[in-house]
Amino acid sequence: MIVKIVNRTRTRGTLHYLFGPGKSSSPHTDQHIVAAWEGFLPDPGHLAPDTPEYTAAMTRLARLLDVRVDQAGANAPDKHVWHCSLRNHPDDPILTDEQWAQAARRVVAAAGIAAEGDPNGCRWIAVRHADDHIHILATLVQADLRRPDNYRDVFRAGAECARMEEEWGLVRVDRPDRTAARRPTDAERRKAERRGRTTTPREQLREMVRTAVAAASNETEFFAALDRLGVQIRKRVLPSGDVGGYNVALPDDTNAHGEPIWFSGTRLAPDLSLPKIRARFHPDPDRGTPTTETWYRAAATLDAVPGHLRQSEDEAAAGQLCALGEAFAAMVVVTTGPTRIEVRRASIAFERATRSRIKADQRAGDALRSAARDLLWAGRGEQDGGATAMILCTLVLAAIAAAHWHRARNHHQQAAAAHQALQHLQFAYRHTTTPRATATRPTRPDTSPQARRQEAPPATPELLDALWQVLPEHAEHILTDPAWPALNTALAQAARTGKAPTTVLLEAVGQRELDTAASPAEVLTWRIRRQLHQPTAQARAATTRSTTRTATAPARPVAPTPMRPTTEERRRRR
């Protein structure tokens, strides 16, 4: 059951909605009371609307509900109407009036509105005007003219709904845990639509701040990165002279007076306040000239994430997931084209998987953060297609491990977010590894080294013999699979390294069965490319050195290639 609770100011107005015709998108039918604080009440739902009898019943019902509110006078809360809706999942069966009445009694008791049989409880009614939901209206004044103890009512009601889902065999609905980022308001969405934007300023700023966090190893670098991204910054300076917080705004997002619309870090996401960002900073070792080996070193660090999630304490694993989100943000900056679009969608989705009720040990993710900054330091253009595929491959495994970790701890929203990110990563990986020869649209010939690496060579007799020898039950399916050209290319790349096709296929098949795979060719391609892109001994040694550096190593500013120059740099150039 999905619970939604709001407080309102007018009892009569809320009743008019509950017993009225509803909206065109959600019309009300057969409006009637299914439960109430007492059994004998006027029910306007059984009367024809716009008649004297209907009006009299509505007036009497509103007065009965407001008796204690009127008695409390100025001591009554301004928003004295407690309006709760209970909605079933679309896959749930239709509940009877008796079942909905039982659900309403349990919810008002759990939320602290009125315990079962308590004469001191608030007055309330439950109205049904559709098959899949009911509305509960209560007035927030008890018989002793005090307010009820309904603190955290939405969470208490949600917990009771979870118990009913289990008892009645209903679909289990994800419950909020207060770790999600704030959603854009309807006004923000409408404003973005009017201006032709696909995202609201709140969402855009959240993504930009996360990119700046991934690029920075200290507070100075963080604000410099925000400035390069074109974000307006307003720091909150304490009387001591220290910076206590920050606000950000987009240059073209203004109010009716032409003033910037500012967002604090906390308003963007719970983990983007300045104190929580500071907890992630740690000095980076001196970086030399970025090379492809930088990508392999970062991949070696990312490759260890699944093992850390399986073996670490919950606090350390939560810290690993926070740092993994920064690696996602870094990959958005250093990829291009369709791959970047999918990686960006994966990063936005995975952002929800980086937070849970488990307090994160941020120091556990220091090595991952160094890997993310390595990627930004290398920048675009230093990597090749193989290095990009290698990083995406490790992120796929990390996203799978993150989904399993959250699911094992009943973090349903976070697990769903990790799974959504996984789907986008798989699309990005397929685009990176698909040979150009299988493209559906004709393009201008590309003579770059990356294009030559991705061209699908003709299948050799040796390769075909190896396929039929190792996988006789899957060979025919694989040869007709759209992913076959990519597998052919991967096997040809392995052959150029001196590995026999039979050996490579045996290693790939031995990792796990293929009978449940929707596309055996795609699975084999992924496994073979993972073998080919294993970090070298030099990269693994460099990773070991980078994770054991002392915390006093000098910090080096992140490469500004993907960002704009700071205001000070632009002033010097002029």
What's the short story on this structure?
The termini are far apart. 50% of the residues lie in helices and 8% in strands. It has 4 domains: 2-168, BirA Bifunctional Protein, domain 2 (2-Layer Sandwich); 186-278, no CATH class; 292-433; 455-532, no CATH class.
Describe the structure.
The protein has 574 residues and is α+β, with helices and mostly antiparallel strands. It has helices at residues 11-19, 52-65, 67-72, 97-110, 153-168, 186-194, 201-215, 219-228, 265-268, 274-278, 292-303, 305-311, 314-334, 337-350, 366-378, 385-408, 412-433, 449-454, 461-470, 475-479, 484-496, 501-509, 520-532, 537-547, 567-573; strands spanning 2-8, 32-36, 81-87, 123-128, 133-139, 232-237, 243-249, 263-264. A hairpin with a 4-residue loop joins strand 4 (123-128) and strand 5 (133-139). The strands form 2 sheets. A 5-stranded antiparallel β-sheet has the order 1-3-5-4-2, sandwiched between helices. A 3-stranded antiparallel β-sheet has the order 6-7-8. It folds into 4 domains: 2-168, BirA Bifunctional Protein, domain 2, CATH 3.30.930; 186-278, no CATH class; 292-433; 455-532, no CATH class. Helix 1 (11-19) crosses helix 2. The protein is built from 25 helices and 8 strands. Helices cover 50% and strands 8% of the residues.
